[in-house]
Amino acid sequence: MKIRYNAPVTLTFALISATVLLLDQLFGLHLISTFFIVPGKGGFDPTFAPGYLRLVTHIIGHVGWQHLLGNFSIILLIGPILEEKYGSSSLLVMILLTALITGLLNVLFFPTALLGASGVAFMMILLVSFTNIRSGDVPLTFILILLFYLAREVMNSLQTNQISEFAHIVGGFCGSLFGFLKPRR
User: Fold this and answer.
1) Is this structure's pTM higher than 0.85?
2) 134 domain residue, yes or no
């Protein structure tokens, strides 16, 4: 028996994110604050070229190990299933589109910064409910996940915290769209 790198997009995403956090914490390089945070509304400088890259790279940076483990316990559980059903390149495109959409909307509408992969995790949560869809059907699992997920995020948004429930909801919306629009391979 041998260990197989079975989900290259998911595993590489997790390894890069963990490495960035480890390097940032071990050496105080300020990598996360420099390259992986999307500023809130009014904080985006269109003349600062790296700012455009942050619209996507924010999914790599995390505040700490608890934040990273919370996101990647979901991503590592669901990502390989999605890579098998949709293909690695399709999943990578879905991850990057979700990152870009959440980053852009955060810059345009929300005053707080955005950091982490929770939008991607929630994209995957909704998308995975489509893995066994049949033509013309809407999976009941999708409806239930959507209802529970929206209820939880709306309740959480009423609390004062440093979590972007908005990114979760947008990620879930992206996963829903991808599920309806992207046929399995």
Assistant:
1) yes
2) yes
